[in-house]
Design brief:
The complex is a heterodimer of chains A (107) and B (252).
Chain A: H1 2-9, H2 12-21, E1 25-26, H3 27-37, H4 46-58, E2 62-66, E3 76-80, H5 82-106
Antiparallel strand pairs in A: 1-3, 2-3
Chain B: H1 2-9, H2 15-26, H3 34-56, H4 61-70, H5 76-93, H6 96-119, H7 121-130, H8 133-167, H9 174-212, H10 215-218, H11 220-239
Helix pairs in contact in B: 2-3, 2-4, 3-4, 6-8, 7-8, 9-11
The chains are: A mainly alpha (107), B mainly alpha (252).
């Protein structure tokens, strides 16, 4: 599991971009969806998540805004930019290529 | 160690609000910037929502708190990135153009006040010639007062600019702090030498004039003081790193 965790952590930014393709979202919701997709086997640390948000925002892949919640705390929402979409496409292509190579080398 | 202590200390208080205390404590090393506050608020609201979900699923509150806190992970990289953008912001904020304008304004104010000091001799000498000694002296003192006010104003507005720029280093890496500390020391030294210089010149002028009546020669003391002041400025400027020279910022 620790090799898997390290591998997944390397794709944190792509995971976030993929989630945002479906629509704007916020930190906890993204983490919930990661847990759901991995059947509770994997969850990002908050620190990892927010570091990735900052990097993506600085690179212009995502933008953020504060939502206006009627009840409870306000949430910070993120949305993907066209640059973010392009980066996502490229990262997925890179991963497919790497997966083929690693499969060829390991099995 | 301290994080654990915080957790124990708040055990008996309502647990949901402890999340805020914990995050505040966690970010105590981060620069007090707008970005940090936003980051904290974002983190707190997400953690509290997670806490609420866990409690709604039937988790005991203390357990839910522990799960939430342990899911934060290591935020040192996050704090480092906050510090970097804070340093970056301050570097852009302190643009050299602004400093140049401040310097020019200060130089102009000093020249004007020195000019007034010198010109103050005119009413004194005129009063002497025309037999209105008292009036001439009065004008001279008024002019001194104006010139001194300009100098004081200049002295008060300039350090404020330096101080606001030096507020930043508390959160910056040590190299930058020592860099501005040494510069600050030189500037403070230069300022005190300058005030002694001008005070001395005034004392020589007034004292000498009163005792020996050599006003017509003694005013040259101010010209001499102005020359010495410029020499001090040049020496001070050479002693600290120039504005163009980048302080060691590490990355970026």
């Amino acid at each position: 599991m620790s090799i898997a965790s390290d591998l997944i952590r390397g794709h944190t930014e792509t995971i976030i971009l993929f989630h945002l393709l479906e629509g704007d979202s916020y930190g906890y919701q993204i983490n919930k969806s990661i847990q759901f997709r991995t059947q509770g086997q994997y969850e990002l640390k908050e620190a990892t998540l927010y570091s990735a948000f900052r990097r993506l925002e600085q690179n212009g892949c995502i933008t953020s805004y504060w939502g206006n919640e009627e009840t409870g705390a306000r949430r910070r929402y993120y949305s993907i930019t066209s640059l973010g979409r392009a980066v996502y496409e490229q990262n997925v292509r890179d991963w497919q290529e790497a997966k083929t190579l690693i499969d060829a080398l390991l099995t | 160690m301290t994080r654990f202590a915080v957790r124990v200390k708040h055990r008996k208080m309502p647990v949901r609000s402890n999340i805020r205390d914990y995050v505040e404590e966690l970010f105590s090393e981060a620069p007090k910037s707008h970005r940090t506050i936003e980051m904290k608020e974002e983190l707190i609201s997400n953690l509290q929502e997670k806490f609420d979900d866990l409690v709604a699923q039937g988790q005991e509150e203390h357990m839910a708190y522990d799960i939430v806190i342990s899911s934060i992970g290591d935020i040192s990289e996050l704090i480092r990135s906050l510090q970097e953008s804070y340093a970056e912001y301050h570097r852009q904020y302190r643009d050299p153009g602004e400093e140049e304008r401040q310097r020019k304004k200060s130089a102009m104010l000093i020249s004007v006040s020195v000019g007034i000091y010198i010109l103050s001799l005119v009413p004194a000498l005129l009063g002497d010639e025309l037999g209105h000694d008292l009036l001439g002296m009065l004008f001279m003192f008024v002019m001194w007062a104006v010139a001194t006010m300009i100098l004081v104003y200049n002295g008060m507005t300039k350090p404020k600019d330096k101080a606001s720029a030096d507020d930043a280093p508390a959160a910056l890496p040590r190299e930058i702090r020592s860099w501005s500390a040494s510069k600050k020391k030189i500037i403070a030294l230069r300022n005190s030498i300058s005030s002694i210089l001008w005070l001395g010149a005034t004392i020589i002028f007034v004292g000498g004039g009163m005792l020996f009546g050599g006003w017509h020669i003694l005013w040259l003391v101010f010209l001499l003081a102005a020359v010495v002041q410029q020499i001090i400025n040049v020496v001070a400027r050479l002693s600290y790193p120039d504005e163009e020279e980048e302080p060691p910022y590490g990355r970026n």
